[in-house]
Structure formats: structure tokens, C-alpha cells
Amino acid sequence: MRHRATGIALLLAAALAGTAAVPTATAVPNDTPAPKPAQAPAPVKTGPGTDHAADDPFTADRTNWFRQDRFGMFIHFGAYSNLEGEYKRPDGSVCRDAEWIKRQCDIPMDAYEKQAQGFNPADFDAKAVVKAAKDAGMKYIVITSKHHEGYAMWPTKVNDWNLRDHSSFDKNRDILAELKKASDDAGIKLGFYYSIWDWHDKDFADPATFPKYEKRMYAQLKELVDNYDPALLWFDGEWDTDNPHNPWTSKDGEKLEAYLRGLNPDLVINNRVGKRRVVDGDYGTPEQEIPGAPVDGQLWESCMTLNGHWGYARYDEDWKSAQTLTRNLLSTTSRSGNYLLNVGPDARGRVPQPSVDRLKQMGDWLRTAGQGNAVFGARYGGLVEEPAWGSVSRKGDKLYAAVTQWPAAGGSLHLKARTEFKVTSARVLGSGQKVTVTKAGDGYDIKPSGAATNATATVVELSVDPGPTARPGRGKGLKQEVFDNAKLEGAPKLTRTDPTLNHAWKFDGSPAASVPADNFSVRWSGSIEPRRSETYTLTTVSDDMARVWIDGKLVIDSWTPHEPKIDKAQVALTAGKRHTIKVEYAEQTGEAHLKLLWSSPGQEQQIVPRSQLYAR
Ligand code: FHN
């Protein structure tokens, strides 16, 4: 912990920095953590034999907090915030945008740098920001450490285009350190957004000098990981675009992801580290939308604005209602997704009050009568189809039906069952009213005897018996035969037991050091043992080619070369029975990926676990 700056020190520092400083009554403690001794990143393994699949994000301890927490705060805060969404051009015309204002309003770089020099978020109060998040029920925060403008919101040593060296802000403050401390004190995870696309760095746009930019980017990311220990990195600006040209490739993403996992194997990383695909990072990032069902092959998080802008825009009063926001959260959870809801602090660093108010209302709903159980630790309902009258999430042996269209007196709510299960009891959270549940047609009718408890969503908690689930198997994995050609020809180069089909060989890797990174193929064979008697969805994520047989029947045939691709099949499996399985895969050139996942009404999506796979 560095010394606490005093008023005089502030003046001295300001004098040195050439900016007038008004000493605050109490010098803001400088919470920049003493940099940890530079961690030499673990050597990044590359080349044949490398498999970049760290674990199964659907079940790994590393991602558990992300899968349980469900609800986070996004913060867009940068030099653009100083303009508060509006730029008056020299000719008197006014141009409006938020975090894209420099580009969309064609602000010359010198003019933009000049305005940034006046940026002074003196009122940024990390404790207040964290309180707003906690009051909302949010469990993690992701703040823009560097947006497309390239302006670093921490005292980076890599350049002087940052809040410490290029602003009117207190040079003894470090808002990321303040936010890290406040988040840690409040038990909230902190993550950083980082834009790959950089409008300011002169080496970015030219492929010939891009490596120089990349080196600086790696150095900045190492500063963030070493000095602030984020739980999550939220990349952005990975897409193909111009002005300036963005040369980022999926191979660049592979390299960066491997580097970051070497820095901290516990990091959770989004799919924009690469090219926003199912094989990039740990989770998908739909934006301003909510997928209609659980996303195949990947965790996911929907990010959304509270009004119409990510960065602060003083004129934008188009705030979503707390009701809409809470229902969005319930919808994302009921499809096993996360909701990252954005606030944009103003030029002084203050979170707009309408944002704070709505977040508090969301938190009030979550804290009422245990309604938060429908979100925190909950996931896709699975056992039932999503109804038109609301959403259904599952948490252990409970289903939480969040009803947004309460039935008329005497009416009932129908739930269509996706598998055999029993409802053992039902109650309305926050009400003593009687609820009767009767089997009806393809599912159950839920008949409440009273009124809805609130206008946002009334939660009916159903205690369920999901039906028999066999004990975990004793499998050790499938027989794996690896061929050093793309046609599964000849004798296999090696034969062994493969615990799970969860492979990301990507560009440089392969199943073994003796197998080249291109032109290889693999056959897995043995049996798969489900724990429930249900219709399972088998999902492959593959690049270049894959096909799957169950009990001798070809159920997935994706045997034409392709980019990373999802294929699915529905197969009826019997609990405790060992169904024969054969999977074939071929890699010609380029990237190589093969994952085999399963899900069923009673089984959430995961890489098929080792315990359920047998070599014979
Ligand atoms: O261009 C950015 C945009 O400014 C904002 O940061 C969003 C938030 O995810 N991401 C990009 C647009 O997809």
C-alpha cells in the first residue's frame, strides 16, 4: 500500500504535473496495490501434443462462481465520458455519440487528446459503485480498463495515454485499485473489459507494425493481471473492421488466450479474446439480446445497456424499467445464461441516479421472499418447456416458475413436461395462498388460489422429484486410436484411453507430440452410460470433421470439412445401460477442435464425463 497522499503532496505532485490541484479535505487514499513481484508467466506450451482445452467450463471449479452468480454490472467509463455524449465541432455543429464519439464524430486526435486532458472523474466513488451493484444483487463487476479509444483507466507504464498521465485527475488516485479494494471488501468479483481494437496506438492498424502494438497489449494485460488480480477478462474489438483496420485473427486469439491462462489459470475469459466463436474463451457474449434457449457448447452472458448507450450520454433518458430488467434477468437465468447490465458514469465519475434507482428496485425484488432463488445458483429449467406466461429456472430439487401473466381467478398455469418427474409440493413465494398442482395432459396445471404478489413476477416454487438418476458410473474413458493421416487409415499411431472428448488442439496442437498439427484423425470407441433414462442431446463442437454412432446408428454426420461447428443429435438412452458409441474425427489443416457434450431434461449441458464413458 503506497503512502496516503497529503494535501501538500497533492499540490507538489500537481505542480510537477503542471496542473492545478485543489487539495481535498481528506486526501483520497491511494489504493494502487504495491505491484506484486512480476510473475514470470508460465511458459506457454505450443506445438504438436498441445491441447488448449483447460477444463470443461460447464463444470470446472474455475467457472463455478460465474455459473452461480448470474448477474453482473458492466461499467463503461473512459475519456469519452468526459464529453458526456456530445461534441461541439469548431463550426458549431453538434455531434452525438458515447464511447464511439471520437470515431463517429470524426474528432481529430489532437482535439480528442486535448479534451481528455481535462478529464477529472474526481467524484468517482468506488464504494458507492460497489454499493449500487450489491443493492442490485449483482455479484460481479466488469469495468472498461481500455475501450477502443485506447485510453487506459489505470496508471499503465506502457504509454502515457491514460488516466494518470493524461487527465486533470488526482495523480495519486487509481480508480481500478479503488474498485478492486471496494469489490474485495464487498465480496464482489472484479473483471476488466479490454478492447483489442485501438484507435490511438499508431502501430495498431499497420500489419507490419501490429506486433509492436501486440507486445504493448500483452504488457498492459500483464499489468492488469499482476496488479489487480481480476477474476475475469472481457475482451472486445476483435471483429474485422476498418478505420482503423483491425488485423486480429483467431490465431492471435489462440496465442493471447494461452498467454493469459499461463498468467493465471483461474481467469474466466470471454469469446471475444478470439473471434467471438464457440471455440474461443469460456463463454459466449450475445449483446443487447437474450438467446431463446441455452447456448449449445458454451456458457453465455448477455450484456445490455440500461438506456440506449454504453458510455454516459447526458441526453439519454430512455431508461428501461426495473420490471423489464428483472424479467430479463429471469429469462437469462432460465436459459443458463448470465446478465451483465451496464452503467455509464458521467464526466465526474458519478453513476446516473436513474441507473442506481433501477438497480436498487431489481435488488429489492430479488431480496423479497426468497425470490432471488430463482436466479442465484439457478439454471435452465430443463424438466419443462419454457411457458408463455413467464420463465422457469431450476435449483436442485426446486423449479422456480416466475409468472409474469398471472391467471384470472380460478384459472391455472400449464407447464409442459419434457420428461417424467413428480411435483411434491408448491408454494407462492411471499404469499400463504394455497396452490394445487395436478397432472394434466402433457404436463402439470398449477392453480394458485390468490392474487399475484407483485407486478414484476410472482414466483411459484415447485418442489420436484426429478425421477431416478443412477449413481455415477465407473468409467475411465473411451478407447482412442490416433492416426497420422486424415483418413483413419492404416495402423493407429497410438492407442490409449481418453478420459473425455474435450479437445482444443487449435492451430498448433495435436493429440500427441508424435502427431503433426495437421492431417491427423482420431477414432474413439466404447460405450456411454447415461444416469437417467431420457432423450439426450449429444452435441459435438468440431473443426474439421466429425461423426458419431450410437448403438451402431450414425446420429451425427458432419464429415465435410468445416470451421468450428456445432452438430446435435437426439438419442433415447437408458439409465445404467452401456450404449455403444463410436466417434470419428479428422483434421486436415488449420484449426482442430473436438468436444462431445450431452444434456437432457434432467442433465444440464456438460462435456460427457469420464465416469460415464467406457473403453469397451
Ligand atoms: O463497440 C463496442 C461497444 O462500444 C460496447 O463496448 C459493446 C459492449 O459489449 N461492445 C462493442 C460492440 O459490440
Notable characteristics:
seven-stranded antiparallel β-sheet, eight-stranded parallel β-sheet, Jelly Rolls, Immunoglobulin-like, 616 residues, binds ligand FHN, TIM Barrel, 3 domains, alpha+beta
CATH-defined architecture of the largest domain: Alpha-Beta Barrel
Indicate the CATH topology of the largest domain: TIM Barrel
**Share of β-strand residues:** 25-35%
At the fourth level of CATH, the homologous superfamily of the largest domain is Glycosidases
- Alpha carbon gyration radius: 26 Å
Quickly give the structural class: alpha+beta
Shape: flat
The domain count comes to 3
Question: How many E-type strands?
Answer: 30
Q: Main beta sheet, described?
A: 8 strands, parallel
CATH hierarchy, class of the largest domain: Alpha Beta
| Helix count from the secondary structure assignment | 10
